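User: Before I run my own analysis I want an independent prediction to cross-check against. Here's the chain; please return only the structure tokens and, at the end, one sentence I can use as a sanity check.
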Amino acid sequence: MEAVADLREWMTLYYNVTNFIHLSTSSSRQTVSCTTTLSEISNMQLKVLESSPIYRVIATVKEMKTDEFYYNACINVVNARQCGKKTTRTADGWFCNYCNFESANMEFKYALKMCIEDSSSHVWAIAFQEATQEIVGMSAKELATIYMELAKTNKIKHTS
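Assistant: Structure tokens:
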């Protein structure tokens, strides 16, 4: 119980002046100002929508799935934004079912599956491009290249 008291004291004194790594950079969605727990969010039974609010949670990464941390993304520009959806390999390159676009090129994008936990619960989540780049410290292309080189030398099993 002493650890709980220490944590409560730290939260009271330092929470508002401590710099945390924010893994969401979305400015187009409403951010709920209060911090909540994973358990409270799970109990809300939220549906993912384009206008879903963003909740702030202080959590720790418990585990990461390192075998599928990136995907091959569409490079087509739709409505002044890169499509970025997952593509499939074709004989001539890459095809995006979302925007019906075929290209000889694609872009590596992050989709890192991780288990995060706080004092109330744990949940599997996916950290996409900006968030994973903040965690990993390099681009998806750089890490995918290292991963594929290690797979070529049979130091790891390549699944993508």
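Sanity check: The radius of gyration is 19 Å.
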